[in-house]
Amino acid sequence: LVPVGNVLRPYADMLLHESFDIPLAGLINGSIDAVLQLGTDDDPQIWITDYKSNRLDQDGDATIISAYGQERLFDAMAHHHYPLQALIYGTAMYRYLRWRAPHLTNPSNHVKGFSYFFVRGMVGPDTPSDTGVFTWLAPDGLWQGLSDRLAGDSR
What is the CATH number of the domain that holds 110? Predict the structure, then answer.
């Protein structure tokens, strides 16, 4: 479901490997921090957002902000299984739209992706735009495919 070359493909491959074994208790403890709707009611563009306060800086970092570049963000996301959390949230949003917005012909196309905001790396207006922000655009059909698999359809 996640194409080759996509930044989350290595994580998706790890999820499918037989050695993947994490405790699920506590994985979905909280709630989605914010669901943002861009576009119109007839053609909504839904983004799932979550705020994180993880401290990523380490001894030797030149500045705190340097710890919140894309590579370190992705490492932190994978370590804490935030991509799995986001995939579950996205699938839940897809199912919600399918149920509550039947006028949308393909709700999977309206859940665009997710953004994780690492607030310690977002230090003001001079912060480079991608520092502290991990954004991922979902491939076409992902949410429907995940929903089908979670419902037991392994096609």
Answer: 3.90.320.10
CA distance 145 to 151: 10
E strand segments, the chain: 34-39, 44-52, 111-118, 133-137
Q: Is the dihedral of CA 138, 144, 147, 152 positive or negative?
A: negative
Assess if residue 97 is contained within a domain.
yes
pLDDT tens digit string along 61-85?
Answer: 888 888 999 999 999 999 998 999 9
Is pTM beyond 0.90? Reply is no
Catalytic residue annotation = 50
Instruction: Output DSSP code: residue 139.
Output: P
Residue at 103: amino acid letter: H
